[in-house]
Each structure stands twice: as C-alpha cells, then as structure tokens.
Amino acid sequence: MKILKKISFLLLLVFVALQFYRPEKNISQGNHASVFIAETNPPKSVKKILTQTCYDCHSENTAYPWYNNIAPVSYWLSDHVNEGKEHLNFSDWENYSIKQKDHKLEELIEEVSEGEMPLKSYKWIHKNARLSQEQIDSIVSWAESTRILYQLGKQPM
C-alpha cells in the first residue's frame, strides 16, 4: 500500500509540473489564409465551412478551447494541430507548387467525402463541424472545379 501512495504522489507531481510546461500555441496575427482564399476563390458557404471546420488544425491560427489550458490535453491538441498542418496548411498555400495544390485538393475531396475529415474527436466538441451531405457536396464541387484549373497548369484566381 505504501508503494501505491508513492506512485500516486509522483503522478500527481508530474501532472502539476506539466501545467507549467505547455506546448507552443498555434496563433498568428492577420489573415492567415488570405492567399489560399484569394487564389481558390471559394463561395461564401464553402469559405464559412473551411473557417469553422478546417482552419483550427490546418492553418497558422487555432482557436483554442478553454480546456487546452490543462495538460495533458494541451499536448494532445498540439499534436493534432501539428499533424494536421503537415498534411495541409492553408496558411502555407503560396509555397505549394501547382502539382502540390492539385494533390492537396484531391486529398481534401477524398477525406471529406469519406467522412474522415473533420476528425470524429473534433466533431464531438464542435457541433458546427458536423457536415451535412449538402455541405460535403458543396466543398467537393468547389474543390473539383478548382483542381481542373490546377491540372491545366493555371492559377485559379
């Protein structure tokens, strides 16, 4: 029993220490996705969906919930954001080649169509991230028409 108390105390100590050492937040100033928006020109409805359901993990600016201030949740969220930005970062759109942009949109279509994005864990907390079939169809339609321009070697604008 004495060893159990020591282990519990040690775990509590680690938990408290983690509260003082948090991962860096993904926050930037300004319009972090302006190049993406200007170049791909999504309709207002799609732009709203992207803002509400994608930018938190796929841009340089995350709107953090209150519970992000509690470790280990802060580490878990940081990992999700970093992984999301590795796959697609709307804030870094200008640095992708035309071929990469086409591929990123192809992946976006696939992930959204198959219900893989937004992540289920994100949809649990963010009810507005639960996409209707109509919203999915509008995203897919916009992305497919934008891809055609990239496949022709043109910048959409």
Explained architecture:
The chain has 157 residues and is mainly alpha-helical. It has one domain (2-151). Helices cover 60% and strands 0% of the residues. It has 8 helices and no strands. It has helices at 2-18, 34-40, 44-53, 55-58, 73-87, 98-113, 120-125, 133-151. The chain is elongated, with a radius of gyration of 19 Å. The chain starts with a helix and ends in a 6-residue tail after the last helix.
Task: Record the SSE blueprint.
Elements: H1 2-18, H2 34-40, H3 44-53, H4 55-58, H5 73-87, H6 98-113, H7 120-125, H8 133-151
Helix pairs in contact: 6-8
Mean pLDDT across the residues is 87
* DSSP helix fraction: 55-70%
**Number of separate domains:** 1
Largest sheet data = none
The separation of the N and C termini measures: 69 Å
Strand and helix order: HHHHHHHH
If helices are DSSP runs of H or I spanning 4 or more residues, what is the number of helices?
8
